[in-house]
Structure to design on (296 residues):
């Protein structure tokens, strides 16, 4: 019997998260919409990840394995290249979906014929807000919106038409960080990014330190790829401010506090932010981190 193709391909990239990925997989299998395939891409794990995935006997699950780690962008590209659905939906291995996520977001997209890519609001779980807080975004995001950074967590909220992802050359595998922001910048140059402002994903931000040099290299590549020299002055200032902010966060997480302060100052000089919630989140994170280190 010939099986029909699924309407959506769910892609989970994962490395060395045998326990966490099971919760992510369960949240996909519990979806109210059942017309999907689930592609789990093992990006060179050295734990018992394959065994953990194969405990699920659902025939919609497919496990693909990279012999060596190639990065999250490459893992997502592998999933896209093996996908059969019209749409690709993405979920990070330590996050989860609400049961109606796929059904509601796909209905939202099909009701808007010009929508080729969308994200949703989400519950943001952090060390300083472990109960989670809802993060929303403008209902329609433009290229200018995206220059302020990747605030919509596309790794676990994004659904896009597979043909559209191919038209923008998928994820940049040279980026070890910020590859999702880079993809959305390129997407927003071709189309609007729609946002369903219902919190349908639970996203965990552990705040783990990534080598500062890796973030700096990614920021440099994104700046060059954005064609910064050809942008209007205001856009260049916004982009440079956002990049300085990303560098400040990377330096802070690596305990390079002087460097973090300098990057933050440059970010404010390039384009002062007016959103008070931005400063509130920074102060809350720094204060919580200070208390954790003081009483550790």
């Amino acid at each position: 019997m010939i099986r029909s193709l699924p309407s959506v391909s769910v892609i989970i990239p994962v490395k060395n998260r045998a326990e966490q990925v099971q919760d992510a997989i369960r949240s996909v299998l519990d979806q109210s919409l059942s017309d999907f395939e689930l592609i789990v891409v093992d990006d060179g794990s050295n734990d018992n990840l394959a065994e953990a995935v194969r405990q699920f006997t659902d025939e919609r699950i497919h496990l693909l394995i990279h012999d060596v780690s190639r990065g999250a962008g490459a893992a997502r590209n592998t999933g896209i290249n093996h996908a059969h659905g019209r749409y690709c939906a993405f979920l990070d291995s330590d996050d989860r979906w609400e049961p109606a996520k796929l059904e509601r977001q796909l209905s939202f997209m099909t009701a808007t014929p010009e929508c080729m890519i969308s994200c949703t609001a989400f519950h943001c779980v952090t060390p300083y807000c472990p109960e989670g807080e809802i993060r929303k975004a403008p209902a329609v995001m433009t290229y200018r919106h995206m220059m302020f950074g990747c605030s919509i967590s596309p790794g676990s909220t994004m659904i896009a038409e597979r043909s559209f992802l191919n038209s923008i050359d998928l994820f940049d595998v040279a980026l070890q960080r910020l590859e999702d922001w880079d993809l959305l910048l390129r997407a927003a140059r071709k189309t609007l990014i729609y946002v369903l402002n219902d919190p349908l994903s639970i996203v965990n931000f552990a705040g783990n330190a990534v080598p500062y040099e890796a973030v700096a290299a990614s920021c440099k590549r994104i700046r060059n790829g954005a064609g910064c020299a050809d942008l209007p002055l205001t856009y260049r200032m916004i982009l440079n401010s956002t990049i300085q902010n990303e560098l400040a966060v990377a330096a802070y997480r690596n305990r390079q506090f002087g460097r973090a302060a300098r990057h933050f100052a440059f970010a404010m000089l390039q384009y002062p932010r007016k959103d008070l919630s931005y400063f509130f989140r920074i102060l809350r994170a720094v204060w919580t981190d200070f208390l954790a280190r003081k009483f550790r």
